[in-house]
Amino acid sequence: MEYKEFSVEDYKNILDLIGDNDRVLYGENISEDYSRDELGSVRVMPNVVVQALSAEEVSKVMKYAYNNNIPVTPRGSGTGLVGAAVPIKAGIVIDLSKMNKILELDEENLTLTVEPGVLLMEIGKYVEEFDLFYPPDPGEKTATIGGNISTNAGGMRAVKYGVTRDYVRGLEVVLPNGEIINIGGKVVKNSSGYALKDLIVGSEGTLGIVTKAVLRLLPLPKKAISLLIPFDTLDNAIETVPKIIKSKSIPTAIEFMQRAAIVAAEEFLKKPFPDNSSDAYLLLTFDGNSKEEIERTYEGVANICLESGALDVFISDTEERQEAIWSARGAFLEAIKALTTEMDEVDVVVPRNKVAEFVKFTHEVEESQDIRIKSFGHAGDGNLHIYILRDELNSEEWNNKLNNVMEILYKKSRELNGQVSGEHGIGFAKKPFLNESLPKESIEIMKGIKLAFDPKNILNPGKVCQ
Amino acid sequence: MEYKEFSVEDYKNILDLIGDNDRVLYGENISEDYSRDELGSVRVMPNVVVQALSAEEVSKVMKYAYNNNIPVTPRGSGTGLVGAAVPIKAGIVIDLSKMNKILELDEENLTLTVEPGVLLMEIGKYVEEFDLFYPPDPGEKTATIGGNISTNAGGMRAVKYGVTRDYVRGLEVVLPNGEIINIGGKVVKNSSGYALKDLIVGSEGTLGIVTKAVLRLLPLPKKAISLLIPFDTLDNAIETVPKIIKSKSIPTAIEFMQRAAIVAAEEFLKKPFPDNSSDAYLLLTFDGNSKEEIERTYEGVANICLESGALDVFISDTEERQEAIWSARGAFLEAIKALTTEMDEVDVVVPRNKVAEFVKFTHEVEESQDIRIKSFGHAGDGNLHIYILRDELNSEEWNNKLNNVMEILYKKSRELNGQVSGEHGIGFAKKPFLNESLPKESIEIMKGIKLAFDPKNILNPGKVCQ
């Protein structure tokens, strides 16, 4: 389908719809930030940016785009890693970051209703004041909740608590034709037709624009304790994880990390990590309502680790010590980025008992392909974040090598019954790998679903399955 | 779309595909059971029934049906309540109840792989031997897991543990064109394209036929305690529930029940209930890994109940006593059915703090419409099971009154921001109410999704959104 060539008339019409010069950016007034997301390897400038303040504004712009056949790309705070918020067909970017109000805390239904531009870190902070808890905990705390919903972000606590989709009860969505619909609500169960709510979650802004979300909260666990456990080799560390799972304790989080990432984070944050003398670490958290209950759980796990070759078990039971460890963990991405000129990432998820095999394989690839690869990730849920570093390669060498390494890694993931993305999504950058990974029937069905929502293919075109 | 008129040739061709006379039923050999589900108000005989033993057999039959334009309706053990398994366009019924093998318990990934015909009660029993736990707990334990997946069944423990969708990690599905695809797998997170797994769950056999499921397990809680709490009025009982939720304790289950249902269950089971002297009861369960931990949780809740007018708190901490109470709860549907000549049900879900208002409203409707209405249900998750009893009404009176009462009840549910079905689904019987309840855009999108999976509309036609 051909899109309309965007004209200054379109800009004026959109400006008329919004009626606020400051929130409709055109031409030179558009910051280069709007052309890219966090990784930056795909860049296209939009023709116009609308900083929306309400679902009604989103609806108006969407209707205009629909009637005039202009592509629209929704955007949160641009922390994505796969180009999902990049307007690859130009046209309109709707920036939702100013729709950032927390609308309602309902303590009787344990729900929080928010606008899409609220930042993840604000949600956590807000509900904790009421002794409540929003469990999803992706590393990137400056992401918007709308972005988290769009990628079905997972994060550290997925081992015990699941992912974003599990905490979305209801959505207000502007459809590609501009109509505003509500899906789900405050209800706990829902078997009323196809699972549109679950489908919108993780659809990366291609099926509708989320303008409001009803989130499910839990009571805040009264206490959390983290264990930092050094091992002499990464293999020993990761191979311990299936034993922990099998032991029937449920840690909140199980992360693995290597010395290189820790040292990079120390330098990046200018803060020492509690220990960096070992090659590899598991970092576990346990939460619960009493110290005794948590101790009972973690003691068994500590013993399993020691029996499997752990060199020590460092227990962090104060908020400060835990903050020191977890802020380092949260800085890994930025710290690794600072080590090199450019990088790209692989966010595969494999069954939990295949993590060790996959990480070992990345080390083989690092050698055979002569390129630096750094990884860390969620050992407890099988989701790995693997970074391929450009270093001093020229553009052609880098593109060739990167593509080759990715092909090799995704192939391995398929062999282990893994999936292309655990939580970062497909966006633009991972489309070829999704295509190779799924049966062609699944891709065709996804295209059909896209068509059901967006017959003119104007909402975030060229993403996910097209 | 016109379907092919089913002929004896079609029967012979299907028999050739399966090659087993005993599992391809035709004409007089088809039991009347295949024309109906548990409620029985919609009945249509199929032309042929295939009792499949494998995904390959399902695929062969589906391909034949696809090429010859014959409708196919999948069926588990027929315990549904909305006609989803009734072959309303006749044609082929594929009975999956003989695909009843538990295929693999994976203790490292905490998954159980099953065929769709495995009964819910078998899953619970099987995994408990390994100290593992499959949390979804619908009342109907003779339902197949395939049926539970098709309706996204919820059950008693949804308050703490969520619903069936939350425990399905992967599916093998035969598509309407007969192709077999795998969706998801043993992975814990997945953001690889649209959420086809979540969409198939709850689609009531209209998008594909589930031939294998990878279920997520949890460690079995070591201990459970139930509290049976009598109140002098149902209002007092139900109005306590939001206070319990707000108190930040998380019971596993919160059910409400009235004396009438208890007495009916006592008669039906020929077993006395621990107490039937009060008008209304809350039944709560708490689980955890130690008696102390559970006691700490339930003591607070018991106090809230007593402050809100509870007459007593009966604690059941032995398996026998809990079994006695919960088996009565499990028999409510059958027991109410035995009270009357025929009945139909409403399975609305409302926000948890609206349950009391809705139940009060059913009492008003009972009076104003001069018809007996019995209800019980999941007070903790807002999902009510409301039964409208025919008693001595003639067919015309019954149909008119039933339809009128349903209209009134679903209208009230919409006013309270509820949904048509919490867990029983839409099937055939609830289509008009889904249509009234959802925005027309949502229904159109659902039709488009159906088309993406089933362009010839041969799989379970006339259900959910069509």
TrEMBL record, chains A, B:
Cofactor(s) the protein requires to work: FAD
Superkingdom classification of source: Bacteria
Domain FAD-binding PCMH-type: 42-220
Record SUPFAM superfamilies: FAD-binding/transporter-associated domain-like, FAD-linked oxidases, C-terminal domain
Membrane-traversing stretches: none
Pfam families membership: FAD-oxidase_C, FAD_binding_4
Keywords: FAD, Flavoprotein, Oxidoreductase
Protein name (Swiss-Prot/TrEMBL): FAD-binding oxidoreductase
Organism: Clostridium saudiense
